[in-house]
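Worked example (supplementary).
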Amino acid sequence: MMLVAFGSLITQLLHVALMLAAAPVIVGAVRWLKARLMGRRGPHPLQPWRDLLKLLRKRPVLAETASVVSRVAPYLALGATTLAAALVPSFAQGMWLAPLADLVLIGGLLALARVALALNGHDAGTPFGGMGAAREMTFAVFAEPALLVCVMVFAVLAGGSNLDAIGAALRDGALGLRVSLLFAGLALVAVMLAENARIPVDNPATHLELTMVHEAMLLEASGRHLAVWEMQAALKLTLWFALLAAIFLPFGTAPAGSGPLAWAAGLGLWGLKMGLLALGLAFFESAIAKMRVFRVPDFLGGALLLALLAAALIFVSTGLA
Amino acid sequence: MLTLLGLCFLALLGLAVWGGSGRAPRAMFLGCAACMAGLGLVGGAALTGLGLPATPLPIGPPWAPSLIAVDALSGWFLLILALVGLPAALFAAASPAPPRAEGAAFPLFLAGMAGVLVAADGFSMLLGFEAMSLASWGLIAARHPRGPGRRTARLYLGFAIFSGLCLIAGFALLAPAGLSFAAIRAAPPEGWRAGVVLMLVLLGAGSKMGLAPFHVWLPLAHPAAATPASALMSGAMVKVALYVMLRMLLDLSGPAQPLWWGLPLVAAGAATALIGGLRANLEQDIKAALACSTLENMGLMVIGIGLALVFRGADLRPLAALALAAVLLHALNHAGFKALLFLCAGAVASLAGSRDPDRLGGLIHRMPWVAGCALLGAASAAALPPFSGFASEWLLLQSLIQGWRVAEMSVQLLAAATLAVAGMAIGLAAAAMVRFAGLVFLGRPRTPMAAGARDATGLMRAALLVPAVASAALAILAAPVLALGGGAIAVLLGPNARAPVAGFDLALGEVGARYAPWAVAGLLALATVLILLAVKNRSKHEPVRGPAWDCGFLPPPAHLPFGDPLSQVSAAGLGQPIRRSLGAVALTLSERHGAAPPGSPQPATLRVEAEDRGFSHVLQPLRRLRQALSREAEALRNLTLRAYLSISFGTLVLLLALVAWLERE
Amino acid sequence: MGFGQLPYDVAHVLGGAMLLVSFVLLYQRRIAALVNALALQGCLLAAAAVWQGYVQGAPQLYVTGLIALAAKGIAIPVFLHRMMRSRMPDRAVEPVGSIGLCMLGGVLLVALAILVVLPATTGARALAREDLAIALSIVLLGLLTMITRRSALGQVAGLMTLENGLVLGAVGVAGMPLVIELSTAGLVLVIIVIAGFFARLLRERFDSLDTDMLHPHRGEGQ
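After joint prediction of all chains, the assembly is encoded as:
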């Protein structure tokens, strides 16, 4: 008993350290793969880490009109994202915080980070900050219901909305391939793209303010504040990758109460899964173009309808079983 | 217990006379605050089991004495009333002296609401309900002797009379054996009578809490009153209507009602939540935006009541208890943060001189206390963990997610669709709160008035701190507080029902979902502080200040610190993405863009006109109907004497036939 | 047979993917992408038919699958692409009404199909019931596509979806006679409609059905 609790605590701490360390690497990997796919050499995957360390050494400049919000919001956002990331399993299940790993709570923590970001956009009183905040909150209006309906689909399969239980239920494989999971997976991918400000919703590499959403809210951030925001964005991408992996690619994850050997195997497989997802994202982003801002609600509305379709189909199959 | 209750009521009536005299309003409002504290004590005592059984009063209608009782459900709502009433009365005491009519109506309003909550027979409940409606009409009318405000008051009065009539009819159907609650419970309605009662309660209590399609008056009427009265109407009066709905549908109508009873409530609640959340993003007046957010929250609570009825009809008692717990906890949380937000808006209006966000901005620098309280309230209203709104909305979302356990597929599909709508409404609420906080408190001041605002002091600050502290405490202690309200759930669902609580956590028994507010708050604080320390450890430079990148606009001159306001985002501009993508769901919109000719330094203009579809689709047909009816009535005046006699005779015969048919049963 | 068994799962996922493509057909505005989606749906139908043939041990379904692959997956899309390239270079985007409303209507139709099929087929195998629900949804979505599109090509897309849904329903039911005949008849219908569309296009452009009129335009694409 004692040993199991100790093991779960160790996995939890290792998991948090892993997520924090891997986050910039995954962003770097996506950038590198994207550059390769486009025929460029691309920066080294460790470049985001180097950028972060460089930004930390720089003196931050705050806007004259900025308030305490600009100084607190980055840490609050990163704190909320870290807590959410701590709840999403990576290499092992049954971590110390697993009883708390509720998908609705994870959505709420991401919403907290999003609101902190939007308020940061408002704080300097510049036109682009407010515009970006309005767009970000509008996208969330469509993304949140899609996420919730997907949670309902998983809850039908696993009984509840606890991510650990869902992962365990899907890993056992007794549930089989399901159309509803296919639809819910597509909906979640669309939500992931919107939440992480990726193409086609937003362009992470843009330099044109009028088309910005995520970057527009960070125009006034610099130095360590910018470093914290960059880290938050990277961690959020990693969190979503881990979430998709935990639900749709659950095989190989070390079950609750297993030893270091299973952890190592789970870790290796997790790295493979992250690499696959990064490759998929890079391929997708290279293949399509960014949408107009006012088409994004259509895109996310489509995701919501897919999720509803998944729910309808899962009701059919459970009604038959 | 009875003594304290009686003292509070007598004191409120006495204070109404005092307030009507117009002398020493500050002491009068402080007296109201004391009465509210007393009623809160009564409510708390009722929750701990020291309730008051049905007691006849020496006064009452000719046929029977009035009955009062305080059970756990009444106690819970008395607590809500006190949570809003106490800070509202404090704020009123800190405000300039009101008109005399308002001084008289304020205590009567409080007494009317408390009267509904402690009534134990239909007559007393309706009496309290009407007193509440009329007094709140007086609070609006006292501030608006003429003009559009007066028209709003008239619209409000019309809806109040409508809801009163529906409830009277509802009680008439419920009480063939007697008006006391015990008699009604002994003979619950069945068949068509039950269906009509459901419809009447939905119309009566629903229109009082702004349920779609009867929501059009609420965003007009609530902000029209003075700030404390607005806070009471938005925080407490709608909860009284919620109490009436819970009492009449879940308690008095008996436990044997079918599953479909909940479906109209779920649908109406979902529509209301969506419309409210949407309009909260589009209103120009901050108090109107807050009133729209009340619509959104009431919609969510009505979804919860509907789900409780569905689950009870499907014999899923623990899930019914879950949905009801969500309703009760959200009612309490909403009372806390909505009172807080309204009082903050009132403080901004009186200290910075405007309710229009395009004339405010940057107030966090000048009013840190108000801004801090408002940010706390906004975070709670936006349902962000670990703040208070999240706990109750988590319960509601969980009960919707569990909607698939009802075996009927149509109910499952409705639950999924409602979940999507509720999620959208919650997202809209978050957007509305970011808009409120961002426009009013962050950025740069847009007018000299906003640049020179003062912070709230003294009694006004205390009035803000009471609901702020309560909201913070409710955020962390959601589970113990809900456990305290377990009695209220037992009143509605039978003695075996219990709140979904495990220790300090909210937990769904067999399902395994769990939310521990204290753990989330603690871990969040720990993570934030650790990150702060780690970052500060590597990066030791203190930040310097520099001008912001303002899209090429020059920085403002030093003597005009509010700068060039046109380059900051405006209220209409901030609502634009939501208006374009969803606005047509609830509003008839027309946008007019005025672009300046090339080379002209004039700014481009954007004018947005929006009308709620409730006006065009509900009120205007009603008005046309009324005009047609009055034309018909005019035609009747030209009949002959014989025609008049035959009409009277025919009516008499019809009434006799009706009596004969009714006695047949 | 239920979830967790490979025959069921694969058939189920293939049907679901066809449903997904029907939604793509409902909202896709670019005509080239529309034709590609049609081809994809044809290939999925072929795969579904072949899989059912393998599972049910019914070799005639292989023929159905082959017909679907050859005609719907390859021949018709190639023909349409070629025709589009040569005949309608300016019609690359087709206006569609409110996409959101279309999609919402589509989801409501799927819910309706489910609510209709499930009570009507009590007693049948789970596989057949759910596949029938999906097939009926595809048919209804095809009809919806036909009424929301204005251009002839959109109508063809709707009709082909409808016909694909019918064939999917037919192959899913074990022991159904005349599956090949049914799918061939549907195919002939589609081809007739495409021929009609082609003829109408010619008349619009050249006011004549005489293909000799085409000769002077042969170099248009270059």
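Two points are worth noting when inspecting this output. Chain A touches chain C through 27 residues (CB under 8 Å). Chain A has a mean pLDDT of 91.
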